[in-house]
Amino acid sequence: MQLAIATGVTVLATGLFLAPLSSQLDDQAMRRALAIAETTASPQVAEDLLGSEPSENGPVQTEAERIRRNTGAEYVVIMDRRGVRWSHTDPEQIGEVVSTDPSQPLAGRHVMGIDSGTLGRSARGKVPLRDDDGRIIGAVSVGIEYDSVRERLLGAIPGLLAYAGGALAVGALAAYMISRRLQRKTHDLAFSDISALLAEREAMLHGIREGVVALDGAGRIRLMNDEAQRLLGLGPEAAGRLLEDALGPGRTADVLAGRVTGEDLVTVRGHRVLIANRMPTDDGGAVATLRDRTELEQLGRELDSTRGLIDALRAQDHEHANRMHTLLGLLELEMHEEAVEFVTEAVGVHRATAEQVTERIRDPLLASLLVGKATVAAERGVSLRIASGTLLPDRLVDPRGLVTVVGNLVDNALDAAAASEDPRIEIEVLAEDRTVVLRVSDSGPGVPAEQQELIFTEGWSTKEPPAHGRRGLGLALVRRFAERQGGSVRVAEACPTAGGGAEFTVVLPEALADADLEAGLTTTGDMR
């Protein structure tokens, strides 16, 4: 195909060159004839014309023949105003009237053209002949044989064809080299095979349940399958855009671009937890795969919650057993008054803790979580206290989300405070209009200033990974939840004067439902 195209282009170029060449050569011949005629029409020839008669040996014929031989013209004809020839290559034609119309040169005009005369077809040039006073006394007609022009054209064709043949040879060699390179690049596959492979690839990419993102050497998205579009929240229009422009800055873009290296890298995109792997390609790009671990992480967190509940129940069971043993000893020693006082005090402490939480935390889910966390904290020797200014009404927009935030922060605070000399945790929840401000502080070692942003990165943790999955997601999910509601989360030193502990502050601007709307819904429910 490439050879046929090269041949066709060469033939077309040759034809386009030859087409104007004939007319160019004709024009050159006519201009040459005209130049010879202008040179011949000299004052000396005009003087000889006025001072002699037309004859074979006359001065006009002699001068005309000299010019014809020197210039290689076919003929040089000099005529008077009557059109009578004074010179001609055939002496018998001298004294005869010319065979073509001499009116134009006799009228003072220069004429060029291809004409047919007694000597055949020729390229001609005609000019007027003037005396010293400028009067027209005759005309000069010079002809160049037309066949000589054609011979020049035909003589130029071999050289032209040689150049065309050389160009064709170069084109054929280039076509051969391109063809070989193309075959190597396509592994000698036919067009039908390539088309079938492309169809199979499209079916496979869009059929698998893993996200696939292909990037070129410049970091632009080359293709994304349907699952990758779903996991990343992008549409087909993202293809061809730079990765950072499509995803925005963040860990997900860093992982896919290769700025974060490793296997099975954890990243959070929206509310999804993704596991990413990246494989570079020979052209400088890469192919990244994404797996959705959101459900697995949710199951893992539910397992953590269940384990926490079991720990709380175990702690209560242990505490209850100790109290029952103490009560049994008091009864066996017949210390009835002391037994009644002990039972009253034990029940009062537990009730006081629960009442303290429920009075200040009106949402049942969050209150239940804090009661359970208080039991676990007591078992681990950590004092969990609700700040005196805490007050949260029962009109949370997303109570489960806030439970996740509080649970993660309290779990981290328990781990940090357990190893301190005076282990304690303080929780403060404030509500103003529709904004909720949550503060969780502990007596642990605190967070170094250089790590206060790093701890919110997906996959970063100082703890050993659990059996069910990976760590480093809790604080990342806290930040994503806060940012999704237009809020923020930050960490600072809990007690700057004492030099210890960490304080996490979460601001959620739209966490509470409107009070009037909540009241209206409650009234409607009561009427029903």
Task: Provide the fold topology.
Blueprint: H1 2-40, H2 43-50, H3 59-71, E1 75-80, H4 103-106, E2 111-117, E3 120-130, E4 136-145, H5 146-185, H6 191-207, E5 211-215, E6 221-224, H7 226-232, H8 243-247, H9 251-257, E7 265-269, E8 272-280, E9 286-292, H10 294-332, H11 336-360, H12 364-379, E10 383-386, H13 399-417, E11 424-432, E12 435-442, H14 474-484, E13 488-495, E14 500-508, H15 515-527
Parallel strand pairs: 10-11
Antiparallel strand pairs: 1-4, 2-3, 3-4, 5-6, 5-9, 7-8, 8-9, 11-12, 12-14, 13-14
Outline the structure in words.
It is a single chain. This protein has 528 residues and is an alpha+beta fold. Helices cover 50% and strands 19% of the residues. The strands form three sheets. It has a five-stranded antiparallel beta sheet with strand order 6-5-9-8-7, sandwiched between helices. Strand 3 and strand 4 form a beta hairpin. The two termini are 83 Å apart.
